[in-house]
Design a protein that fits this description.
It contains 11 helices and 14 strands. With 299 residues, it is α/β, with parallel strands linked by helices. The chain folds into 2 domains: 210 residues, P-loop containing nucleotide triphosphate hydrolases (Rossmann fold), CATH 3.40.50; 82 residues, Alpha-Beta Plaits (2-Layer Sandwich). It binds adenosine-5'-triphosphate.
């Protein structure tokens, strides 16, 4: 769906994007994670056609988005700072969107408005709280039934109940229509329950991009105990991290859980458990292997 090749962008000598490569498959929920200033908003603004790269290429469904109205009308974008016309109400914006997006679904708009009881459709949006303004943005964006939904720090300012409500509406769109979602955040934890692909952005380029399936089979955590010292680890198992407490050792191994379990079982331990790893742990160990200062990137 989104193919980004070698994109660079500088602002007055500040290199915001540095030969960035990124691929978002169709139907994916792709989480773009990185610290302040990593370049998340800059790459997102390129994807929605607001910025032109100094170098490189961005293709959406094989086409360049710049000056391309037919691609733009399939994309809904919620920026990190949302602006509406000064006096506009949600109903005014609904009529504006209806004129702008041929796929705008008015019936669906009224249906999902009911999920947001605080939303008064006839009051000026600028009188709303930050969280309610975000709700307006989601109601409008989802009513387009976009092929691509681009969200820059979407849950900032929303309480946990609203976050869940909004994610369940997004998941509904993904399930019913195969919508592709690109969502940015500072925090991997925020995205780990919803994304099936993750890209980690640091200093203007993607340092790691993985699908969840690929991730879950890439690192394994095992707890083992032996009657004596920990024997040499079998060939083919790379130890990324190891802690021993008395007889019990916790090992983080590169590779698939089944392979790790079989090879460790062949050593006849007194105890052998394969333990679940959070997405955050997987990234930490994967990137430690690549000598990145991961804690600065993920938290
Ligand atoms: N319009 C601009 N003019 C000058 N510098 C810019 C501009 N936009 C971005 N930058 C710089 O580019 C770099 C990347 O900024 P960007 O806003 O893309 O980061 P981000 O990952 O979205 O950060 P945050 O999480 O704080 O929103 C920063 O150094 C920023 O100061």
């Amino acid at each position: 769906m989104i193919q980004i090749d070698n994109v660079s962008k500088s602002f007055h000598g500040t290199q915001a994007l540095d030969h960035l490569q990124m691929h978002v498959p169709k139907g994916a929920i792709y989480g773009l994670v990185g610290p302040n200033g990593a370049g998340k908003s800059t790459i997102i603004r390129h994807i929605v056609g607001a910025y032109r790269p100094d170098e490189g290429e961005i293709l959406i469904d094989g086409e360049n988005i710049r000056e391309n109205a037919s691609i733009k009308e399939k994309i809904a974008y919620i920026p990190d700072e949302i602006f509406y016309f000064a006096q506009a109400t949600t109903l005014d914006m609904m009529h504006y969107y209806k004129g702008l997006y041929p796929s705008f679904d008015e019936q669906y708009f009224y249906k999902i408005c009911k999920c947001f009881p605080m939303l008064n459709l006839k009051k000026p949006i600028r009188s709303f709280s930050k969280g309610t303004i975000k709700q307006v943005a989601f109601v409008l964006a989802l009513s387009i039934h976009p092929a691509l939904l681009v969200l820059d720090e979407p849950v900032d300012g929303l309480d946990p109940v609203m976050r869940r409500q909004i994610w369940s509406l997004i998941m509904g769109e993904v399930a019913d229509r195969g919508t592709t979602v690109l969502v940015s955040s500072h925090n991997l934890r925020e995205l780990e329950d919803v994304c099936d692909h993750i890209g980690i952005l640091s200093h203007g380029h993607i340092i790691l991009e993985r699908s969840l399936d690929n991730l879950q089979s890439s690192v394994t955590k095992v707890q083992v105990a032996f009657d004596g010292d920990l024997p040499p680890i079998p060939e083919g198992l790379q130890v990324l991290h190891s802690v021993t407490n008395g007889r019990v050792s916790t090992l983080i191994l590169k590779g698939q859980p089944r392979e790790a379990q079989e090879k460790m079982a062949a050593l006849h331990p007194l105890l052998l458990d394969v333990l679940p790893l959070s997405l955050e742990e997987i990234f930490i160990y994967e990137m430690e292997g690549e000598h990145y200062e991961v804690k600065n990137i993920l938290f």
